[in-house]
Design brief:
The structure holds 3 protein chains of 3 kinds.
Chain A lengths: L1 H17 L8 H28 L19 H9 L4 H8 L2 E3 L2 H9 L4 H11 L3 E2 L2 H9 L8 H9 L2 E2 L9 H11 L5 H10 L9 H8 L1 H35 L2 H16 L2 H12 L4 H9 L11 H29 L3 H9 L4 H12 L1 H17 L2 H5 L12 H10 L8 H25 L2 H4 L8
Antiparallel strand pairs in A: 1-2, 1-3
Chain B lengths: L7 H24 L2 E2 L9 E2 L16 H32 L5 H13 L6 H11 L5 H26 L2 H9 L4 H12 L1 H17 L2 H6 L8 H10 L7 H30 L6
Antiparallel strand pairs in B: 1-2
Chain C lengths: L4 H15 L5 E9 L8 H20 L3 E9 L3 H13 L6 E5 L3 H6 L3 E2 L17 H6 L1 E2 L2 E2 L1 E3 L5 E6 H6 L4 H12 L5 H13 L9 E2 L7 H8 L12 E3 L1 H17 L11 H9 L5 E5 L2 H7 L6 H4 E4 L12 E3 L2 E6 L4 H14 L2 H11 L6 H4 L2 H4 L2 H9 L4 E3 L6 H16 L5 H16 L3 E3 L1
Parallel strand pairs in C: 1-2, 1-3, 9-11, 10-16, 13-15
Antiparallel strand pairs in C: 3-14, 4-14, 5-6, 7-14, 8-11, 8-12
The chains are: A mainly alpha, B mainly alpha, C alpha/beta.
């Protein structure tokens, strides 16, 4: 949230200048604000901060979240072997010893093992030792009083075992102690090294950002995102929105209201249904392919069948939602133009094109800027529509940054969720979003929107 | 005005540009009542078969239960968003607060800010609060993400209420809270209605949050229900069936929209979507 | 395995509640099953049957036992794995999960599942009848984590009418599987054949060869066809064989250039693919044994054996071999289950693995048996397709490695395939990108060849 802090100081500096007299703070105001602040902190600020923290970790499915433990596995020993762990040490650590001694019996009694079973174990195996837990379990099963349930048997067996392999420890001290017990000959430095490496949880790292900075994929994603945002904005949100607003400005009222309602439909249609409609429109045996077929044009699944048509589909389907935003805003701005100017131009004999160019368009500069900036942000991070339609395909040709962040962190086929990397990608969006927002706030004269309360009692 | 300009060519142009939408929505309705031969566009017979899912749960499952769940979700979001936004909106519009400008700037930023990028963080918060995989969690998250928008809209409505009303009330000796309750709230009723409708529409259409944050919940909402229908690869694509379920799903939205069209137009101008 | 204070306390609790629990016992066991389409309902129904059996056994012993099984099925893998991972993190995971064996690696490292070998005897019935190689597939870090729920083979299917149309004799068609198995008939021979079908007008353009439309273990078969090895047998490390990857990517690029498959085939829809496969619109296509159930049950394929020939995935070059990948799903007990529930869950799983119950799943979903005994269950033995697939394909199958890092490699490999296939990058660049990504993520734990 450091960028917000910058914002704060910037705004605060201004406000100090304008107000010498500091009115009393309203307790009521704070009380009214409290519920909103509570929810926003919980579900807005906290996630932003968490995203920032996780971006610097290697958090993933296999590290788990906040449940790191210490466990020495055969795989770990093999890895460490590559990095200098001696064969002898590895063998010592991997060893299992099972001895049926007094101490083991005592532990088992304390653990509540059936006394009859335990005395059989003592009679039959006292003083013996095994090095294979499975063999020992098999022996135990042969005893007349052996429990029926496998779990009880394996747990009874464990009272006589000393080993470290595959046991999960909650803290490093416990593992260190056990390691020293199992493999007393291994040096304490080596043990410390093994304990450190045996941690299963997430570690802090900057690798996510290094990866984003070096991999080629990043460039492709940025390119795709830029193309997507620019084309959707330019062609639809601004271009089509402006076109519709101007045309509807000239049409009679019933026509205007019919078409503005029609163009609002994509915005109020639930997303899932909207996606289905587009599938029907572009799918094999859907509307467009059938028409194309009848006209003798290439007919295939336009949504996923080729890179160019996939892009066109993706941009249009998002653009149709966005166009209404521009339409409403521009229409409002058009209504604000004094009629006299238009009438005067008509009297002067201007045709419609001249009227649009000379009178209307110059007045549209700020609305256009507003739509552009506002919608850039929402397009940058929108992926639901893409996810439900092209899903970044064909191949990965229509994958944009936000979709990639989402699939990396939360939704992919191998189920290998890389929260850390995904959070890093989301953080990039958060930072871009904050920077853009701050620029816009300056651009659109924020201070006018937040004039001070007029009375304060 | 501008009577000397020809209108007809404009309407033709408009119709051409709007054709894709008109076609999509036209066929959406048409297809739910008809069948067309394979590979053809125009239907050749009338049928109610696509609507049999309304009374026959064996077709796609129980839509009424899903609709009930969606209703609960949407109404709960109104319950969270409208009261909290109207309180906070009043505070930032009329009362003196520390960091008021900062808060307003924050609301502006959050209003424009794409909250979906925070999904990973949101999951952790739900995990820590034990609300993951519950509808309550989804409702709280969705409601909170809508708050900046709600506060901003309500602030706009409060700003438009004349100061004289408040001034008069306060001079009569009423407390600020009483003035708010008795005099100001009735003035912003259109805002409350519009915000409620908007919260309902947004909650009703929400798909991502229930699917990600409550996948194992018993409360399957219509959006997830409908999408699962489409995803199942066993069925073969029966667009007409999907569309019928879709129209069933969208009907409440359309009705609300028709009823409140004018009030919504104002809000959509500052809308959060796409 | 060792003793700690907590372990002791746990055992005490366990023993008092289970061993000496003559009083009524009540359990609720939740099961989540991935990959459960309409044909695979026995993934969780088997657990319900096992619960019934356990209750009856308890009644016979004079004990009172009630087990309520709550199940949830997922059709898509990404949703399912996401839901389980997140639910585990949030402590509301199910007790039993049915998933691909490759999830054992990451899930066991994260502590989301417990080794089932602590809860069941593998040397008693029915677990002692399960094929040892399937048990190996469920083994990671020297522990057995799950019980295989099914096995499968992935198949190259051939349209007999289309082969006949380009002049193949009945003998040639019959001997095709053997010629493929011996390595005589390669992937490029296949491309030539389907190209001929298209040229002859038997098939439409881009319909000659129809690979799987989405990510899946299938694409590793092609990597093996070109001599690739997924993991080093000795050290267990993952292996990136750049030559084999190049061969694989180049093969799909060549297929696209020949016009027998479209460059944007990946990401197209399953329904369309099934429909075309079942209607004989493809020349050669590869899928799983279980697709047979879908085509014959839902997509109207009637005369499978007279219209479709089936074989291993052919070798790609001299370095590789004809092969097929099996991808067993496994029953896993999660660490969300309490000790008591885990004991019950594991026993339910063992019971659900008896030949008769598992055969219901195998036959209904066209998956392969998990034990020799199961193949003698009449329901299974009478099924022509399963018998045929077991005989022709199963002996040559291998599985993808259980390695917690394999997901990273898998994702990178598939990304590279998509990039090369769609023409976004050249084959060499795509392979280099895989190499860099995997190397960067896994460091010394991967062997680059």
């Amino acid at each position: 949230m450091s960028s917000s802090a910058d914002l704060n100081t910037g705004v605060a500096r201004k406000s100090r200048r304008s107000d010498r007299r500091r009115p009393r703070i309203s307790g009521l105001g704070l009380a009214l604000l409290a519920p909103a602040l509570f929810l926003l902190s919980l579900f807005f600020f906290a996630p932003v901060i968490l995203t920032g923290v996780f971006a610097f970790t290697d958090l993933s499915t296999s590290t788990g979240i906040g449940r790191g433990q210490y466990v020495v596995t055969p795989n770990l020993l093999r890895q460490l072997g590559d990095q200098g762990l001696t064969e002898d040490d590895a063998t010592a650590i991997a060893s299992v010893s099972i001895s049926i001694d007094e101490a083991g019996i005592a532990r088992a009694t304390e653990g509540g093992v059936d006394p009859d079973f335990l005395s059989e174990i003592e009679d039959r195996f006292a003083g013996e030792s095994f090095d294979d837990p499975r063999a020992f379990s098999r022996e135990l099963r042969g005893l007349p009083n052996a429990p029926r349930r496998p779990r009880e048997l394996t747990q009874t067996a464990e009272y006589f075992e000393t080993s470290v392999l595959n046991t999960r420890f909650d803290n490093p001290e416990a593992l260190t102690a056990q390691l020293a017990d199992v493999a007393p000959d291994v040096s304490s430095d080596t043990i410390a090294w093994i304990v450190d490496r045996s941690y299963t949880g997430a570690r802090f790292t900057t690798a996510n950002f290094e990866r984003l900075a070096t991999q080629k994929e990043t460039l492709r994603l940025i390119g795709n995102t830029a193309l997507y945002v620019a084309a959707t904005l330019g062609l639809f949100n601004v271009g089509l929105g402006l076109f519709l607003a101007i045309v509807l400005f000239y049409t009679p009222k019933p026509v205007t209201s019919f078409y503005s309602t029609l163009w609002l439909l994509p915005r109020i249609t639930p997303l899932v249904l909207y996606a289905i409609m587009w599938k029907w429109f572009t799918w094999e045996d859907g509307f467009l392919p059938i028409i194309a077929d009848q006209l003798g044009l290439p007919s295939f699944n336009y949504m996923k069948g080729s890179v160019v048509t996939a892009w066109m589909t993706m941009i249009s389907l998002n653009g149709f939602i966005g166009a209404s935003f521009g339409l409403i805003l521009f229409s409002g701005a058009l209504r604000a133009i004094p009629m006299q100017q238009l009438w005067a131009s008509e009297v002067d004999g201007a045709n419609r094109w001249q009227q649009v160019r000379r009178i209307i368009l110059p007045q549209m500069r700020w609305p256009i800027l507003f739509v552009t900036s506002y919608q850039t942000l929402s397009l940058l991070s929108s992926y639901e529509q893409i996810w439900l339609t092209t899903n970044g395909g064909p191949g990965r040709t229509t994958t944009v940054w936000a979709l990639e962040a989402f699939t990396t962190a939360l939704s992919n086929y191998t189920g290998n969720l890389q929260y850390g990397l995904g959070a890093a990608m989301a953080l990039v969006l958060v930072v871009v979003g904050l920077v853009l927002s701050i620029i816009y706030l300056r651009l659109f004269k924020f201070s006018e929107l937040v004039s001070r309360p007029k009375i304060e009692l | 005005m501008t009577k000397n300009f020809a209108i007809f060519p404009l309407i033709v142009l408009l119709t051409l540009v709007s054709l894709p939408i008109a076609v999509m929505y036209g066929f959406l309705i048409l297809d739910t009542f008809t069948d067309a031969p394979p590979g053809e566009l125009w239907p050749d017979r009338f049928t109610l078969a696509h609507w049999r899912f309304l009374w026959d749960p064996s077709v796609v499952g129980n839509v009424w239960k899903a609709a009930g769940n969606s209703l609960i979700l949407a109404v709960s979001i109104i319950v969270i968003v409208v009261p909290i936004s109207s309180l906070a909106g009043y505070a930032v519009s009329r009362l003196n607060l520390p960091f008021r400008r900062f808060f307003l700037a924050g609301i502006m930023v959050m209003h424009a800010f794409p909250a979906v990028t925070l999904l990973i963080g949101v999951f952790f918060v739900l995990k820590f609060t034990g609300l993951y995989n519950t509808m309550i969690g989804v409702i709280l998250v969705k409601g909170s993400l809508m708050l900046p928008f709600g506060i901003w809209i309500m602030k706009g409505f409060y700003d438009a209420v004349p100061w004289e009303i408040e001034m008069a009330g306060v001079q009569d000796g009423a407390s600020r809270l009483t003035v708010f309750r008795r005099l100001i709230l009735p003035q912003v009723k259109p805002g409350l209605v519009a915000l409620s409708v908007f919260a309902f529409l947004d909650g009703w259409g929400e798909y991502l949050l229930p699917r990600i944050l409550a996948p194992g919940s018993d409360m399957e909402v219509l959006s997830v229900f409908l999408n699962e229908l489409v995803q199942a690869d066993q069925l073969g694509y029966d667009f007409n069936l999907f569309k019928s379920v879709g129209v069933f799903y969208t009907l409440p939205v359309i009705i609300l929209f028709v009823l409140f069209q004018n009030r919504l137009m104002n809000i959509f101008g500052g809308g959060t979507k796409g | 395995m060792t003793f700690t204070a907590t372990r002791t306390a746990l055992t005490a609790a366990l023993l008092s509640s289970v061993a000496f629990g003559a009083a009524a016992e009540d359990y609720t066991i939740t099961v989540w099953a991935g990959g459960s389409g309409d044909n695979a309902t026995y993934r969780w129904e088997a657990i319900e049957m096992a619960a019934d059996l356990m209750e009856r056994e308890a009644a016979v012993r004079g004990e009172e036992l009630t087990i309520t099984v709550e199940s949830q099925a997922w059709t898509g893998w990404d949703d399912f794995k996401q839901a389980f991972t997140l639910a585990s993190e949030a402590d509301n995971a199910p007790d039993i999960i049915v998933s691909g064996h490759e999830d054992i690696g990451p899930w066991s490292e994260a502590g989301l599942i417990v080794p089932i070998e602590d809860y069941v005897f593998f040397d008693s019935y029915p677990l002692n009848t399960i094929y040892p190689n399937l048990i190996d597939v469920a083994t990671f870090n020297g522990q057995i984590w799950g019980i295989p729920q099914d096995a499968e083979a992935r198949v190259m299917y051939w349209s007999i009418p289309a082969l006949e149309a380009i002049g193949w004799s009945a003998d040639e068609i019959d001997s095709l599987p053997d010629r493929i198995a011996s390595g005589e008939f390669t992937l490029y021979d296949m491309l030539d054949a389907v190209k001929k079908m298209q040229d002859a007008g038997v098939l439409e353009a881009n319909m000659g060869f129809a690979p799987r439309v989405s990510n899946g273990p299938d694409y590793w078969q092609f990597y093996q066809s070109f001599g690739g090895e997924m993991a080093d047998e000795e050290s267990g490390k993952l292996v990136v064989d750049t030559e084999a990857l190049k061969g694989t990517y180049q093969f799909f690029v060549d297929a696209t250039e020949m016009g027998v498959v479209s460059g944007t085939h990946l990401g197209s829809e399953w329904d369309v693919w099934h429909q075309n496969a079942a209607s004989g619109n493809y020349g050669a296509w590869h899928g799983g044994t279980w697709h047979y159930a879908q085509w014959t049950n839902q997509f109207g394929l009637e005369d499978f054996f007279n219209t479709v020939q089936y074989s291993l995935i052919p070798a790609g070059n001299d370095a590789g071999r004809a092969n097929s990948i099996t991808h067993p799903l496994v029953y896993l007990v999660t660490s969300a289950a309490s000790e008591d529930e885990a004991v019950i869950a594991a026993e339910l799983i063992a019971k659900a693995s008896t030949p008769e119950i598992n055969a219901l799943h195998a036959v209904k979903s066209a998956h392969l048996a998990i034990s020799e005994d199961e193949t003698t269950v009449p329901l299974y033995a009478e099924n022509r397709w399963l018998a045929a697939a077991s005989e022709r394909l199963a002996p040559s199958t291998n599985a993808i490695p259980n390695n917690s890092d394999f997901g990273v490699y898998w994702t990178a490999m598939f990304d590279g395939l998509e990039a090369a296939w769609t023409g976004v990058s050249s084959v060499d660049d795509a392979v280099a990108e895989v190499e860099t990504t995997v190397k960067q993520a896994l460091g010394d734990d991967v062997i680059i060849r």
